[in-house]
Model the fold of this input.
Amino acid sequence: MMRRLLIIMLMTITTAAIHSQDFSFKEVTYAPEATTFRLFAPNNAKKVVVRIYNQGKDGKAVKTVKMTRTGNEQWQATVQGDLMGKFYTFDMGKGECPGVFAKAVGVNGKRGAIINMANTNPQGWDNDCRPVMKSPVDLVVYEMHHRDFSIAREDARYKGKFLALTEPWAIEHLKTLGVNAIHILPSYDYGSVDETRLDTPQYNWGYDPVNYNVPEGGYSTDPYQPEVRVREFKQMVQALHKAGIRVILDVVYNHTYDIEHSNFQRTYPDYYYRKTADGAYSNGSGCGNETASDQPMMTLFMIESVKHWINEYHIDGFRFDLMGCHDIETMNQIRKAVDEIDPSIFIYGEGWSAGACALPNEQLGMKANIPQMPRIAAFSDEIRDALRGPFDDDSKCGWLGTGIRIFKSSDMTGFKESLKFGIAGAIAHPQIEMKQVNYSKAPWAVEPTQMMSYVSCHDDMCLVDRLKASLPGISEAELIRLDLLAQTAVFTSQGVPFMLSGEELLRTKLGVHNSFESPDSINHLDWGNKTKYPQVFEYYKNLIALRKHHPAFRLGNADLVRKHLEFLQTPEKAVAYRLKNYAGRDDWRNIIVILNVSRADTEVTIPEGNYTIVCCDGVINENGLGTLKGSKAIVDAQSALILHD
Done:
């Protein structure tokens, strides 16, 4: 414990010292008379120069200026003349690069660009407002890849581009569905798409960072002009904000595309990466390297990067890829820095790593350590895998398949307790037997706002494909019923609901588990499904509206959840609970949710009352679908029943 405190104190002192030297990642300071370049690099570097170019690709440098050391690990050079519109690189003999904090770049991000960021602001940008959010549980998060969403849309003008999200058809779809936060997959400049060949179909999720603080050129209409990608990203944010939709950025600070060619390595070799005791590069990311968030300048880089996206692009939240690779102290410093700008900005991440990290788990942003990271959330793989089955075996089903396949009683208990744990928001609840919960034997969320509730996301089979893989021969009718049942569990849970783009269209990726570089034929949304399966979109839309209209589904406080959420006794293939005595709306004093996975209609005992049915057999109508009097409820096969008194 003392060693941990000493490490934190040293980090704090060192970071404070960096701030006091006013370095703060101001790598380029422009003025019409001269531009000053600064670089964080080793004291013993033999060659540190900055090169100036007329274009972002090809051509020789028009000027090369030697940088001089001005302080501990600080180098500086001033280039006379007006460099607006020019491009630059730093060179230490390890290969040229635009530095670690370039804010604009040329094509493929090889050279930094000097532009006037104010000139990239769309009309009305100064009046752009972040949509109001009282609590994270009020969010409905929709995870989207730019190319997936629009590439196959016939009436899209900007297929696969940032600007697709400014088009009326896109805004209308999102608003009608009811989502109020778009989680965009990596949208910074990444390495696996060649921006000089955009006329050739290329695809990647983008988890291969190059320039963390510049929008990806492949999603712009002209990657050669540095201002274009910046302006079009802002136009996208502005259009979504006008529609009442927040924008959450997927950030991948845990690793770089590679080590040798990364901007980190080329400016300060080995500083930004962790190594194991034997001197090898640690690989907690599973991508060949693992950045050292605990290094003071990496900590500062992450903080400044997040602040840049908030201040320059008006981003409303951040999803941290493999947050379990980052140290707890850094995550808390980021939360503190964000709170100073706007406490409503939401932060969540994957509470795991993809391999062993060089730091012990006790120091990392793992799911189990969420209690040490106030107001930071993590994904719940407990509810995900309870519903659909384990991540590492596509052939195994979870609770959704127990009405079709035979399971041991102990398995059924594990599925149900894990599902209940997710419904309660991963907090301590007296009716949950934690020893029966998968993965976690102790509650890890202090508040339900710290749990992301979901059943599928980009980096696995989508829900339809997982059901097909784990339940061979399932009929289309059953597939739809189980799909809707799964999402009912997610959207009536007390955590923050999260869904994969296209699930409302009964999306399929043709069974591909990891489609990170699969072609459009695998990843695109089939917009024809909206007409083919209208009942699916209608159910998703009404389910989201149900959650938004009734605050009992999003209490946002652990004590309130324990007070008002009561699980009911049910047959083996059903889970039921009551949201009791919550005066969120006068005529919805008590709400009962029953989830039935059985292929047969199932009877469940409920508290005596006069009820109005609002969800039954795949249909939702808040005005009522019928009434029920007494203490017995019959739930249709493979569906949810929701009623209130």
About this structure: The first helix runs from residue 2 to 20. The radius of gyration is 26 Å.
